Amino acid sequence: MSEFSPEWLDLREPADRRARSGDVANAVSARFALRDEVSVLDLGSGTGSNLRATAPLLPNRQRWKLVDHDASLHEVAKTRLAAWADAAEISDDGLRLRKDGRDIDVTFTVAELASETNSLVDEPPNLVTASAFFDLASEDYIRALAKAVAERRIAFYATLTYNGQRRWTPHRPADNQMASAFHRHQLRDKGLGLAVGPMAPAHLADQFRLNGYSVIEDDSNWRLDRNDRMLIEELVRGHAVAVSEVGGVDAKTIVDWINVSRSGVAIGHTDTFAAPAS
Q: Of the candidates 63, 26, 15, which has an alpha carbon nearest to the alpha carbon of residue 218?
């Protein structure tokens, strides 16, 4: 199962929603509380899960632009969002949704974010957002994005950025060796330059502060248990594949690690909200 496939995104969505920081979400909500309308640019939008989780924080009139490099994910997002809404109108241009008293207009853009992100903010939205995205990006990409967002005085909200913390239950001696190899794999180029992996939250906070923004951060950790068995099993498989690709761990250790019966795992993420300081 690919980390970008609709099946994987569907599997992780409930865990993502549970993990989001309430404190950071409240800061986002407070920022826009006096507005009647808000426009949002969602980077790496996948199947629309970030919209579904973030829309309740925002005013009753919302305009979303969902951006992904994979047009097929947009088609899945249209189906998922229409099913989520209380009412939906589907057109060639996008969606018009009604959900919990909110009117939400959605358009879809296919773009290569490595080269087109700056142009996407040329008509500035009120909010740029992304979920489970920036650990896949390079330091240069994060620096350029923060500069572009700050020049236009746009608020910024990133959720579920992987921060490198993990604890499997039960713990095994090979866990640390596997994690080290997994992190080496994370630092490969994922399409946005050599990725910063678990250093992404620190880079986001640093770059926005350097651009004069106030930054709020909080943990948004996955805490998975036996009720999340399918997600845990997929995480184990995904980790093993990544480790085998990067090398440095012998095959017997990987096989033995896969065969441990896992009852839970905690995986660290960070939510970040950044806004102009004045």
A: 26
Handedness of CA 179, 181, 187, 188 (dihedral sign): negative
| Structural domains of the chain sorted by starting position, each given as residue range(s) with its CATH number in brackets | 6-169+192-225+268-276 (3.40.50.150)
Task: Determine the 3-state secondary structure of 198 from DSSP.
Answer: helix
pLDDT of residue 267: 97
Going by C-alpha positions, the residue among 157, 158, 174 that lies closest to residue 166 is 174
Handedness of CA 193, 194, 198, 202 (dihedral sign): negative
Q: What is the mean pLDDT of residues 164-188?
A: 94
Q: Which two tokens stand for residue 240?
A: 């093993």
Question: Which H or E run contains 143?
Answer: helix 139-151
Helix 174-186 with 251-258: angle, nearest 10 deg: 110
Could you give the maximum distance between any two Cα atoms of the chain, in Å? 59
Distance CA 113, CA 61 (A): 27
Q: Roughly what angle, to the nearest 10 degrees, separates helices 139-151 and 200-210?
A: 30
Find tokens 């106030």 and name the residue.
214
Query: What is the per-residue pLDDT across 129-173, written as a single tens digit (0 to 9) for each?
Result: 999 999 999 999 999 999 999 999 999 999 999 999 999 999 999
Indicate the helix (H) or strand (E) that contains 23. helix 22-31
Beta strands at 127-131 and 37-43: parallel, antiparallel or unpaired: parallel
**Using CA of residue 13, residue 15, residue 16, residue 20, what is the dihedral sign?**
positive
Residues 6+ apart with CB under 8 A from 163: 198, 200, 201, 268, 269, 270
Helix (H) or strand (E) holding 210: helix 200-210
- Residues 6-31 pLDDT 10s: 999 999 999 999 999 999 999 999 99
Mean pLDDT over the full length of the chain: 95
